[in-house]
Amino acid sequence: MNKRKIRITEDGSTTLELIGKDENFHSTHGAIQESEHIFIKNGLLKKAQERKEISIFEMGFGTGLNALLSGLFAIKNDIQLNYFSIEAYPIELELIEMLNFSERLELSIELERQFNALHLSNWHQRIEINPNFSFEKRKIKLEDFKFPKEAFDLVYFDAFNPDLQPELWTEEIFRKIYQAMKPQGILMTYSAKGKVKRALKAAGFSLNALPGPPGKREITQAIKLVDFKT
Ligand SMILES: C[S@@+](CC[C@H](N)C(=O)[O-])C[C@H]1O[C@@H](n2cnc3c(N)ncnc32)[C@H](O)[C@@H]1O
């Protein structure tokens, strides 16, 4: 994977840029704004309307922004989150220290400590970040990960662009994820590319095209619809 550097997005929050690839970890129109819209509003909020305990699988821990926003949502709405994230190329501590999410979100010292704990926690070890938020990250490639069966209510599929990493957006990968999701589980992704949607459909998902955050017309919500009558 290429080297990374800090970049400020249009909502004032930081992201990382893959040097020489014209690829960023988040939308340059606003990192926090994008994560809030795609993963929290259209994913976590929807699940939280039907259940109080939610298991999340995240593809690509990266800066930890999705985990941070999910943890804040869990506290605010008093739900229990079991968060599981994988990451193949962890970010160096010097870059993590330059992220400004704590400042932009006006986190208390304690919440800032909890965000740092996500990064500092051991790989392959579940920890209780706070009473609403249990967290585990694994250092592994998505392609090598052995998924558990029917374990997750919600999936944040946050890989790099399908043009950069086509091997991660395949029917085969989506089939494994489908198996790992509970019935009525939701997968959220920022991509609305035709080949991504075809692969998701072929893996068994039902798709909803939803309006994207600023700078993006459409995003994809994929649901594991299971008809209990059959
Ligand atoms: C678009 S970034 C999103 C990161 C993260 N969700 C965030 O909010 O910062 C994609 C992430 O996937 C990671 N990644 C790339 N290839 C991977 C692979 N084969 N398996 C697991 N993670 C991978 C990258 O290192 C990067 O952290």
Care to describe what's here?
There is one protein chain. Helices cover 30% and strands 28% of the residues. By secondary structure, the chain is of the alpha/beta class. It has an 8-stranded mixed beta sheet, sandwiched between helices. A 3-stranded antiparallel beta sheet has the order 1-2-3, with no helix packed on it. It has one domain: Vaccinia Virus protein VP39 (Rossmann fold), CATH 3.40.50. The chain has helices at 31-48, 65-77, 93-96, 101-104, 109-120, 171-180, 194-202, and strands at residues 4-8, 14-18, 23-24, 53-59, 80-87, 127-130, 133-139, 152-157, 181-189, 206-211, 218-223. It is built from 7 helices and 11 strands. The mean pLDDT is 97. S-adenosylmethionine binds next to helix 2 and strand 5.
Mean pLDDT across every amino acid position:
97
Low-confidence stretches: none
Count the beta strands. Answer: 11
Placed side by side, the strands forming the largest sheet appear as 6-7-5-4-8-9-11-10
CATH class: Alpha Beta
Which range best describes the helical content: under 10%, 10-25%, 25-40%, 40-55%, 55-70% or over 70%?
25-40%
Task: Give the names of the bound compounds.
Answer: S-adenosylmethionine
Terminus-to-terminus distance: 45 Å
Write the H/E string, N to C. Answer: EEEHEHEHHHEEEHEHEE
- Computed over alpha carbons, the radius of gyration is 17 Å
Which class do the helix and strand fractions yield? alpha/beta
Oligomer: single chain
Number of domains: 1
The biggest sheet, with number of strands, parallel, antiparallel or mixed sense and barrel status, is: 8 strands, mixed
CATH superfamily: Vaccinia Virus protein VP39
Q: What is the CATH topology classification name?
A: Rossmann fold
Strand content: 25-35%
Number of helices: 7
Task: Write the CATH architecture name.
Answer: 3-Layer(aba) Sandwich
Shape, per Cα inertia axes: globular
